[in-house]
Amino acid sequence: MPGNTGNGNMMMNKIKVYRAMHDLTQENLASAIGVTRQTILAIEKGKYVPSLDLAFKIARHFRVNIEEVFMYDEGRPTQNTLGSK
Amino acid sequence: MKKNTFYLFTGCIAITLLAIFWYSVEIHNSLVSVVAFIAGIAAIYSARLKVTDLIEDERSAKITEKAALRTLQVFWVVFCAFSIGAVTERLYVPAFPRPYPPVHPPAILPPRMMGYIQLGLLCLIIFLYVGFRIYYARKYGEWEHDDE
């Protein structure tokens, strides 16, 4: 799901796909990286754009590069998320 | 300390503060309520640091931050507008000589009412903050549901 980065661009992610590949629930992933399940859900649904720190933690957890989990898509208008003003 | 214990503790502090406030009004001693208020809030803050099962991550911190900022932005304007209006009624500045006698309209707010209204506004800040918190929490997926 896409999330607004605040300048009209989109941050897409494949967390749900990677979770399925690793057979992880949102709760498992959340506790592994020290956030709440709601945060994982919000990121997956594009309601919240994670910080760079959290994005790296998620990518490291799946043992992939950050670009494989998070994609920056320029020029797509979106809904508001926490990454925005 | 568990989260529920903390909420219970906060409730107890609030009731105690109310009782102390009542007592200080009864004995006409404002210092008692002022000291008790500061001590009570300090106790709540220090107890909050000891809560173990309260997970705060960057999203919840951001929601808190945004709600607090918006509350402050609204509150300071309302509070300042009211305070400026109230103080203006009581200020005297040297006036230029005029051919007619100065007109002093009756004060809208008696001084005691100013204090009450300011206290009321300070209490309203809590509701304002809760409102903004609910708004941002809802906006940023706090109560989203998933199929899992």
Kindly describe this structure.
The complex is a heterodimer of chains A (85) and B (148). Chain A contains five helices and three strands; from the N terminus they run ββαααααβ. Chain A is α+β, with helices and mostly antiparallel strands and 85 residues long. In chain A, α2 crosses α3. In chain A, 33% of the residues are buried. The model of chain A has no long low-confidence stretch (mean pLDDT 83). With 148 residues, chain B is an all-alpha fold. Chain B has two domains: 1-54; 56-93 and 101-148, no CATH class. Chain B has helices at 3-26, 30-49, 58-88, 111-139. In chain B, α1 runs antiparallel to α2 and α3 (58-88) runs antiparallel to α4 (111-139). The two termini of chain B are 31 Å apart. Classes of the chains: A alpha+beta (85), B mainly alpha (148). The interface between A and B is medium-sized, with 20 and 15 residues.
Structure in a nutshell:
The complex is a heterodimer of chains A (85) and B (148). By secondary structure, chain A is an alpha+beta fold.
Number of strands of chain B: 0
Largest sheet of chain B, in brief, is: none
* CATH class descriptor of chain A: Mainly Alpha
- Please name the two chains that share the biggest interface, counting residues whose Cβ lies under 8 Å from a Cβ on the partner chain: A-B, 20 and 15 residues
Spatial extent as radius of gyration of chain B: 22 Å
Q: Low-confidence segments of chain B, ≥5 residues, pLDDT <50?
A: none
Percent of residues of chain A in beta strands?
A: 5-15%
Tally of structural domains of chain B? 2
User: What is the succession of H and E elements of chain A?
Assistant: EEHHHHHE
> Multimeric state of these chains?
heterodimer
Provide the gyration radius of chain A in Å: 12 Å
What class do helices, strands and sheet pairing of chain A give?
Answer: alpha+beta
- Determine the mean pLDDT of chain A: 83
Helix content of chain A: 40-55%
Q: Write down the overall geometry of chain B.
A: flat
Looking at the structure, the CATH topology of chain A is 434 Repressor (Amino-terminal Domain)
* Count of domains of chain A: 1
